[in-house]
């Protein structure tokens, strides 16, 4: 299905990371027993922005986090937790963009 093993590896790694923080995705590493609402990344707004870009056919390295490689510094967010949240936000909506309420 996917020809690029590096892309598959990155996708799986980032998806696993996003699952490990399923309740909330933070802007920095957080202790398991600590919660800071001011450091939560709004996944839903990222999902909606991606869905809108996708419907407008604006699918580029800048707008599609799964297309990027870890070394694409000109496209990746400087904060790895924000970049991980971008992947988490879009990883589950590819097949339902036409019918979901994500935009």
What labels would you give this structure?
103 residues; mainly alpha; 3 helices; 39% helix
Question: Would you mind describing this structure in some detail?
Answer:
The protein is an all-alpha fold and 103 residues long. It contains three helices and no strands. The longest helix has 16 residues, at 5-20. The two termini are 27 Å apart.
- Which series of helices and strands comes N to C? HHH
Report how far the terminal alpha carbons are from each other: 27 Å
Q: Structural class, from secondary structure content? A: mainly alpha
Number of helices: 3
Compute the CA-based radius of gyration: 14 Å
Q: Identify the overall geometry.
A: globular
Biggest sheet record: none
Low-pLDDT segments: 94-100
Number of strands: 0
Strand content: under 5%
> What is the averaged pLDDT score?
78
- Helical proportion? 25-40%
Helix and strand arrangement:
Elements lengths: L4 H16 L22 H13 L24 H11 L13
Helix pairs in contact: 1-3, 2-3
Short description:
The chain has 103 residues and is an all-alpha fold. The chain has 3 helices and no strands. The longest helix is centred in the first third of the chain and has 16 residues, at 5-20.
